[in-house]
Design brief:
It is built from nine helices and no strands. 20% of the residues are buried. With 207 residues, it is an all-alpha fold. Helix 1 runs antiparallel to helix 2 and helix 5 packs antiparallel against helix 8. It has one domain. It is globular, with a radius of gyration of 20 Å.
Length: 207
């Protein structure tokens, strides 16, 4: 299958899969199946999918390199933007349904509760990533674009800490996210070290 055909078939499918959690949430809401505390359910679901999509976005590069399926990189931007989309929904749920757009209360809450602070930091770090996701921004920023987009690591880490500090009893979900993030970051550190070693050996052989 050529790249153009694959992209034409898979792109709508990836889009629908990424959108499905929201569709499911809306359907359950319409049927009154969000439980006794619908705001908490919406907050949890949008936050969970923000983190999940951040992890999937970070997993694209390792999968591409390990499998040799370089076409996977075409979906990284879409997945990253969906992570930001769910992050916006998560933040909107907090600002609107939880705090009723009370700016003073929000500022106080962000400063007072550490898990809210970390969640806000995670979202804020995603904003420049989404804002510079266009081809025009990539061309304009050049090499600086790659440096800027390393903020995704800090955003994901802050999101995991936010989730971990939020949970009071069962930490299995945030702990799972922490392990996945650790593996993804560990792979990048190892790959960079091996790449440097290979470059040094090549330079030494050339001398």
């Amino acid at each position: 299958m050529d790249n153009k055909t694959r992209n034409r078939l898979l792109k709508p499918l990836v889009f629908l899969i990424a959108l499905w959690p929201l569709i499911g949430l809306l359907l359950r809401g319409a049927m009154g199946q969000l439980g006794a505390n619908p705001i908490e359910r919406i907050t949890h679901q949008t936050g969970w999918w923000t983190l999940a999509l951040l992890m999937i976005t970070l997993a694209v590069t390792p999968l591409r390199k390990l499998t040799g399926q370089y076409w996977l990189v075409q979906y990284r931007r879409m997945l990253g933007l969906f992570a930001f989309f769910y992050g916006c929904l998560h933040m909107l749920t907090y600002v609107w349904l939880d705090q009723f757009f009370d700016a003073q209360a929000i500022v106080k809450d962000v400063g007072k509760r550490p898990f809210i602070t970390m969640g806000t930091l995670s979202f804020v770090l995603m904003v420049p990533l989404a804002a510079t996701s266009t081809q025009k921004a990539i061309r304009r920023l050049g090499k600086r674009w790659q440096t800027l987009h390393k903020l995704i690591y800090a955003s994901a880490a802050a999101g995991v800490v936010h989730f971990l500090w939020l949970v009071k009893k069962d930490i299995s979900e945030p702990a799972t996210f922490a392990v996945v993030l650790g593996l993804l970051l560990g792979y990048r550190v190892l790959a960079a070290a091996l790449e440097r070693r290979g470059a040094q050996r090549t330079a030494a052989a050339a001398d």
